[in-house]
Structures are given as C-alpha cells and as structure tokens.
Amino acid sequence: QVQLQESGPGLVKPSETLSLTCTVSGGSITTNSVVWGWIRQPPGKEPEWMGAIDASGTTYYNPSLKSRTSISRDTSKNQFTLQLSSVAPRDTAVYYCARGSKGWCPWGQGTQVTVSS
C-alpha cells in the first residue's frame, strides 16, 4: 500500500523559497504510468494542483505557478520535492503530495505552511 508523507518548514518568510519533500513508501516513484504531484489548499478555498513529476523525471506545472515552481526527485531516497520561490502571504496553505494514476490517490496527510514575517 502506497503511503506519502510531506515534510518541511511550517513557517516561511515573504520573498523566501518554500521547500517541501514528499517521502513515498510502498511503491516506487519510477513506476511507469504514475505521476507524483503537489496540491495545495489555501484556507477557505478549493484545492489547487501545482505540478507533478512522472516516472522518467519529466515535470508538469500549473501555468499560473510555473514561473515560481520547481519539482525534482531523488530516486535513491524515493522522494520528490517542491520548491516555490518568492512566496507571499497568499501562498499560505496546506500542502499535499499525492500519487496520480487515473485520479489523485492516495494523498499525504498534508503539511501547513504559513508565509509570514
């Protein structure tokens, strides 16, 4: 059974770069036909897909966030990471990593990130 766990700082200052890691267990991030993605949910808003990385390492980004977003992976650790640059208070949200294959499932438990000075 695949499980995902997000990790990273809960507080980031404006203009800094947010960095989160997703550790995957019970499955390999190099499995074909599967993508690994990041989704965030700001308070009171709908979830927003941020981007994903597939088995070959190809990345896909939400056009609205593409200029500030970078997703990479470490296959030796079975982890993938999210970097979001130039953060602002509007980037405050619960950030989730998830496995994508005909839908996003499962998701990690999520991690709260607050952008504040």
Describe the structure using short key phrases.
single chain, 117 residues, mainly beta, seven-stranded mixed β-sheet, 52% strand, globular
Walk me through what this model shows.
The structure is a single chain. The protein is an all-beta fold. It has strands at 3-7, 11-12, 18-25, 35-41, 48-54, 59-61, 69-74, 79-84, 93-100, 104-107, 111-115. Strands 2, 4, 5, 6, 9, 10 and 11 form a 7-stranded mixed beta sheet that branches. A hairpin with a 3-residue loop joins strand 9 and strand 10. The N and C termini lie far apart (39 Å).
The arrangement of helices and strands along the chain is EEEEEEEEEEE
Main β sheet profile? 7 strands, mixed
Overall morphology: globular
The residue fraction in helices comes out at under 10%
Q: Which range does the strand content fall in?
A: over 45%
> What is the mean pLDDT?
96
* Topology, number of strands: 11
Helical run tally: 0
Write a compact overview of the structure shown.
By secondary structure, the protein is mainly beta. The protein has strands at 3-7, 11-12, 18-25, 35-41, 48-54, 59-61, 69-74, 79-84, 93-100, 104-107, 111-115.
Topology:
Elements: E1 3-7, E2 11-12, E3 18-25, E4 35-41, E5 48-54, E6 59-61, E7 69-74, E8 79-84, E9 93-100, E10 104-107, E11 111-115
Parallel strand pairs: 2-11
Antiparallel strand pairs: 1-3, 3-8, 4-5, 4-9, 5-6, 7-8, 9-10, 9-11
